[in-house]
Amino acid sequence: NLSEFRFIVVGSGFFGAAMAERIATILREPVLVLERRHHLGGNSYSVPDPETGIEIHPYGSHLFHTSSDAVWQWIGRFSRFTHYRHRVFTRYRGRTYTMPINLMTLNTLFGLDLTPEQARGFLAGEAAREPYPDPANLEEKAISLVGRRLYEAFIKGYTAKQWETDPRELPADVITRLPVRLNYNDFYFNDIYEGLPVDGYHAIFDRIFANSLIHAVTNCDFFDVRALLRPDAIVIYTGPIDRYFDYCCGRLSWRTLDFQIERPPVADWQGTAVVNYAEQDVPFTRIHEFRHLHPERRYRCDRTVIMREYSRFATATDEPYYPVNTPADRRIYDQYAALAAQETQVVFGGRLGTYRYLDMHQAIGAALKAFEREVMPLVVPA
Ligand code: FAD
Ligand code: UDP
């Protein structure tokens, strides 16, 4: 009976899952989680492939990394983590380079043999050819970091495919997700903690939702059952914020992804978990080969699973994955944020609910904070 629940969480991704867990564990209150998809876990979900047993990430490889002790401790209650550290390679004009841009990338592309100090001077020279003292968008930021030649090789084409948006309209912090290094460190992330859950993300969600106070329902859209909920319910909403307000201030732009899975009959197809394709005329952005995410497992060797990732604008019926965040989007979002502030019984959270490009650890960190700052005050009178 849906009307029994005072706490409703819409969406079972990491934001919703962490919220439900806090409500059940700290408040010891029953909580109803409504999930539109057929499984729990949102985009972070992973599951063994029924045909090969290889753990696949159906929404793209999800690498867990954080420098937050609070987040690492929280997730550590639901899983042990492997020591996997992510590396990415990128293909450009028939050759393979290490990504993010580091000393090896630079030396290989230009046929040089620079030391770190020489590379510093080299990159400064590259950037000085087209100076942006106050870079205000992705393109200016990227060129100010590495210069136009590296930008055009490794960033321009990939970014064009990923966003189909003028890179001068994209926020600079999309590119500063990637470090630029003057040494041979080619790890993708800089965080203190990194790894993959030993038995997959689905096991994490199974454990979170095993709490007897959490009642999770899949294949259930909040908007279909809203009328059956208690009028005084406290709702944690992690769906798209523009959908919540019936698009009354216009549609936010989102990117969605199409994934194409193949199971070639070889032990190892590309030699690593993720290869990016930098050139614009290759239609996909990257290829995932999931067996490499768990080198500690003994997978069969007669087949592997690869997945090509294609990016495009989300239409009304597509799953939104990435907020595009152009200046026009920010203006629309600000109007929704003002409306959200008036919804005193609703907490908006997560990638979709706050229109922010959050990684898993940031979604969890935001949920732990929002529980303290937004949910607790609704329950405990100040
Ligand atoms: P989501 O996981 O999107 O969950 C939202 C849930 O709400 C969904 O399950 C949706 O079905 C449900 N929902 C929406 N509307 C309704 C409704 N009306 N009724 C019921 N349910 C509804 N992060 C990392 O840290 N490392 C990575 O390597 C990484 N790689 C990524 C790769 C890709 C391709 C993508 C798209 C994201 C990646 N992320 C990564 C980010 C990660 O997916 C997010 O940080 C995380 O999923 C955010 O959790 P969330 O709860 O905000 O949203
Ligand atoms: N990017 C790029 N070339 C690459 C990898 C990334 O230009 O080989 C840019 C691109 O704009 C991308 C952004 O950097 O959207 C962030 O990359 P990241 O790998 O963090 O994206 P995600 O894994 O979140 O899709």
Automatic annotation (TrEMBL):
Q: Which residues belong to any copy of the UDP-galactopyranose mutase C-terminal domain?
A: 153-357
What InterPro entries does its record include?
UDP-GALP_mutase, UDP-GalPyranose_mutase_C
Keywords on record: FAD, Flavoprotein, Isomerase
Question: So what EC number does this one have?
Answer: 5.4.99.9
Q: Main EC class of this protein?
A: isomerase
A GO molecular function assigned to this protein is: UDP-galactopyranose mutase activity
Show the GO cellular component annotation of the record. cytosol
Position of the signal peptide? none
The protein's required cofactor(s) are namely: FAD
Going by the entry's taxonomy, the superkingdom of the source organism is recorded as Bacteria
Q: Name one Pfam family in it.
A: GLF
Q: Which family does it belong to?
A: Belongs to the UDP-galactopyranose/dTDP-fucopyranose mutase family.
Q: PANTHER family from the entry?
A: UDP-GALACTOPYRANOSE MUTASE
Question: What is the name listed in the Swiss-Prot or TrEMBL entry for this protein?
Answer: UDP-galactopyranose mutase
Origin organism of this chain? Rhodovastum atsumiense
Q: What gene is behind this protein?
A: glf
